[in-house]
From TrEMBL:
Gene from which the chain derives: acdA
Protein name (record): 3-sulfinopropanoyl-CoA desulfinase
Catalytic activity, reaction form: 3-sulfinopropanoyl-CoA + H2O = propanoyl-CoA + sulfite + H(+)
Species name: Arenimonas maotaiensis
Cofactor(s) essential for the protein: FAD
Taxonomic superkingdom: Bacteria
Amino acid sequence: MDFGFTEEQLMIQDVARRIAQEKIAPSAEHFDRTGEFPLDNIRLLGENGLMGIEVPTEYGGAGMDPVSYVLAMIEIAEADCAHSTIVSVNNSLFCNGILKFGTEAQKQLYVRAIAEGREIGAFALTEPQSGSDATAMRCRAVKQADGTYVINGKKSWITSGPVAKYIILFAMTDPAKGAKGITAFMIDTAKPGFHRGKTEPKLGIRASATCEIEFQDYVATADEVVGVEGEGFKIAMGVLDAGRIGIASQAVGLAKAAYKAAVAYAKERKSFGQAIGSFQMIQAKIADMKCRLDAAEILTLRAAWAKAQTDRNGGRFSTEASVAKLTASEAAMFITHQALQIHGGMGYSKEMPLERYFRDAKITEIYEGTSEIQRLVIARNETGLR
C-alpha cells in the first residue's frame, strides 16, 4: 500500500475540505437543531463531483478511486456527520450497487441523476423485525404472468427515505429459498404504491432524514430488477462491504473533529494556574485518542486500497472493510467520549459542538453492520468457520 497520495486525490480532498469548511460546518448546528434536510449543501456537493466520487465520468461522476472517496468523506464528516451520511449512502450503497450489478440502461437512468446531485438515492434492506438478520425479511415481490412484480411490505430506518427519488429495494421473491430467494429492485418513489412514513426523531445525525417506507401493490417491471433474480442477498452483502468503508471514513472524520477540539481546549483551559493539558491524566487521554485516531485512519485507507485492488482484479475486501469499520467506529465513540470528558461541563452544553459529536458517534457502531456483526465477519473470514 502506497501512503503517498496522487495529485488527483489531493485535489478532490481540497474540494471537499473547502465546501465542508465554508458551507457545511457553519450550518451544521442549524441542521442538527431543526432536523431539516440540507438539500442546498447536498446539491453543491453533487455539482462538485462529491455525490459520485467513484462513478465514471460517462455516468456523471468524478471518476475517482476508493482512496479519493475516503479522503473526501473524512473532510465532510469532520464538518458534519449527518452530511457525510447522505454522501455515503449515495456513493457507497446506491451508485456502487448499480455500477456493479446494474444494466447499462439502469446506469444511465439512475446513476447520473444521483451522482450529479440532482436527485437523492437510498438503500432499503432493513425491516421492522429484521436488522442484522436480513434473510428474515417479509417484504414480498410476487412475479406475475406478464413478467412484472407486485411488491408489498415495509422497510425501516431508510436513510434519505423521506427525500429519495430512487431506492434500491431488497424483497423476497421465493421465500422457500431463504437468502437465495431475495431479489434487488430499482424503485421510483413517484410511482403508485410507494408510501413514506414519518421521519424518525433520531438521537444524532439529525439532518440525515430517515423514515419507514411501505409498498402496497407497487408494480416493478422486469427491467427494474437489479442483477439476477435471486441474487439480491449477494448484491446487498457486496454493496455493504463498500458501505462499511464509507462509515469508517465518517467515523474517522468525526473522531478527528473531536480530537482537534479536545487538544485545543486542553491548551486553552486553565486550572490551578496552568493549562489542563499539562496534567498527566489529560495527557494520557490525548495520547490514547491520538493512537486510536491514527490506527482508524490507516486501516480505513487500507480498506480503500484493498477495494481498489478488487475493483481491478476481482475478489473480496470484506475483512479489510469490517476491520476498518469496527476500529473506526469504536475509536469515534471512545474519542468523542474522552473529548467531552476533557471539556467537562462545557462539553455537555449545546453551546459547544462536542455534545453533537458524541450523539453522532454512536450510530457508527450500529448502522451498516453493528460492531457485533463486524466481529462475526472478521472471525468467520479468518477461521473459515460458520
